[in-house]
Amino acid sequence: MAEEVKVFGRWTSPFCCRVEIALRLKGVPYEYIEEDLSNKSPLLLEYNPVHKKVPVLVHGGKPIAESLVVLEYIEETWRRNPILPEDPHRRAMARFWTKFIDEKCMPIMWKSLWSEGEMQLKLMEETKENLSILERELNSKKFFGGNSIGLVDIAASFLSCWTEVLQEVAGISLFGEAKHPILFKWANEFMSSDAVKVCLPPKDELLSHFRAMKEGMSATKAGQN
Amino acid sequence: MAAVGGEEVKLLGAWPSPFVMRPRIALNLKGVGYEFLEEVFGVKSELLLKSNPVYKKIPVLIHAGKPICESMIIVQYIDEVWAAKGSAILPADPYDRALHRFWAVYIDDKWFPSLSGISRAQTEEAKAEAVEQVFAGLKLLEEAFEKCSKGKGFFGGDTIGYLDIALGCYLGWLKVTEKMTGIKFLDEEKTPLLVGWGERFCADDAVKGVMPETNKLMEFFKVLQAKFKAASAK
């Protein structure tokens, strides 16, 4: 009998989405538990005492945290539809690009969306450069993983609806068909694949969520002046 | 120097870097010979810029002409390519592997920045906070050691593993920080298991030749600090 799989997540988080995409790709049934991050459940605090964050995967009662660690665990535990290639050098490259996404692409893009003035312009430039680097890596492949979705594609899932929504909320343009046509094509291909589309949050709800977040931040700033 | 199968292995690095130590330990564990190409401090070689255009950082492993970057990614690569040689670096069980990976990320993202934050602290308050974070981290790592080692000498069990490499490479810099601050971070009373582990790690054949002497590191650190002060004074 297969051991129970649970995912503790937040619907607005691209990191949690990664875990769900991987499980769907591999046809692994799981129970999803939505966390209210302003009121974390005792279970979450028990399963991830170090960071107290989502996502957390719990398999047969054993918790694993940190989305990329979870993805590697999923890959090693359920072998169907592999998300990493067999060749060690290609595996190392996939891990490299995944780390690049997590350490450079995502945080700098996130900061650029929420900053202002000179700082925002600088971060926007850096984001566009990072996306160009990613685009060069994708080259003429359908997915970063080749013909099928792989680890890097899953890590880059923030380039789907999140980037679209956040650019709209921030009123800036960082990523689009004109600027990064290859990556843009990839994003559409990625978003329309079966395993991915069921995991993505509804765009209009995500838009409302981040709009409210921005309004909250502006109100705090106004209150501070 | 050629490895098994005649495919050349080169490592671009520098002796003081804890990140460079990691693949060196891994290659030693596997009994794989390599050519060590020492980068000159402050000057990036053509080969480095060509092999790691994204980050322009060491270490870079070049195996049969192909570069691999990022220290723990290199360690995993070494474990996979030379799986049949030496001892396994990552454990066999997927959950144990996840634990090793989780703590390695914690060490790099949270613990080591706290440690290096001590010398960078501008105020006494900031310094005290960084010190507290280092101690808190060591306490967590002591518990992790108990869980991962399962009564054996290393996080990896009988032999040095992924998590041993991830943490152990920082022992030299930890000792430098202890000397500079007069604070004993690895304390018998607070973290006895880690104290024993630290001694075993440094004494291991795979580590001995690549762990820099604390005095040498101290001197290097003083040079670094002086350069940093001079640069910020300009």
Strand tally of chain B is 4
Low-confidence stretches of chain B: 1-5
Average pLDDT rating of chain A: 94
List the uncertain runs of chain A: none
**Given the structure, what is the number of helices of chain A?**
10
Named at the architecture level, the CATH assignment of the largest domain in chain A is: Up-down Bundle
CATH topology of the largest domain in chain A: Glutathione S-transferase Yfyf (Class Pi), Chain A, domain 2
Read across the widest sheet of chain B, the strand sequence of neighbours is 2-1-3-4
Instruction: State the assembly state of the protein chains.
Output: heterodimer
The largest β sheet of chain B comes out as: 4 strands, mixed
Strand content of chain B: 5-15%
Beta-strand level of the residues of chain A, as a percent range?
5-15%
Concise summary:
In chain A, 58% of the residues lie in helices and 8% in strands. With 225 residues, chain A is of the alpha+beta class.
Structural features, described:
Chain A is of the alpha+beta class. Chain A is 58% helix and 8% strand. Chain A has helices spanning 14-25, 42-47, 67-77, 88-114, 117-138, 151-155, 161-170, 181-192, 194-197, 203-224, and strands at 5-9, 31-34, 56-59, 62-65. Chain A has a four-stranded mixed sheet with strand order 2-1-3-4, covered by helices on one side. In chain A, a hairpin with a 2-residue loop joins strand 3 (56-59) and strand 4. In chain A, helix 1 (14-25) packs parallel to helix 3 (67-77) and helix 7 (161-170) packs parallel to helix 10. Chain A starts with a strand and ends with a helix. The mean pLDDT of chain A is 94. The N and C termini of chain B lie far apart (44 Å). Chain B is globular, with a radius of gyration of 18 Å. Chain B is of the alpha+beta class and 234 residues long. Chain B has ten helices and four strands, in the order βαβαββαααααααα. The A-B interface holds A 50, 59, 62, 64-66, 68-70, 72-73, 76-77, 88-89, 91-93, 95-96, 99-100, 133 and B 54, 63, 66, 68-70, 73-74, 76-77, 80-81, 94-95, 97-98, 101-102, 105-106, 140.
